[in-house]
Amino acid sequence: VCLAKEAGLLYAAVAMATDYDCWRESEDHVCAADVMAVFKKNVTKVTDLLVKAVELIGQQDWDQDIDALQ
């Protein structure tokens, strides 16, 4: 984060939840295979998100924002 700010880079984070019941103590513990199955289901969604984000980012003029960070 600090290096991105020092370099004047704008960034965003993307997270994928893979264990939706992690807060439920009564549920069985998740295994790696379950996590990977959910991860694989999310790949298409994240790919679509990133493609759309790049498209929208490319339509903006970011010069003032970048200059403000440097």
Uncertain ranges:
none
- Structural class of the secondary elements? mainly alpha
Q: Round the Cα radius of gyration to an integer and report it.
A: 18 Å
Portion of residues in beta strands equals: under 5%
**First-last Cα distance:** 13 Å
Principal-axis shape: elongated
Q: What's the number of structural domains?
A: 1
User: Main sheet, how many strands, which sense, barrel?
Assistant: none
Task: List SSEs in N-to-C order.
Answer: HHH
- Mean of residue pLDDT values: 83
Word description of this protein:
With 70 residues, the chain is mostly helical. The chain has one domain. Helix content is 56%, strand content 0%. The protein is built from three helices and no strands. The protein has helices at residues 2-6, 32-58, 63-69. The longest helix has 27 residues, at 32-58.
Question: Which SSEs are present, and which pair or pack?
Answer:
Layout: H1 2-6, H2 32-58, H3 63-69
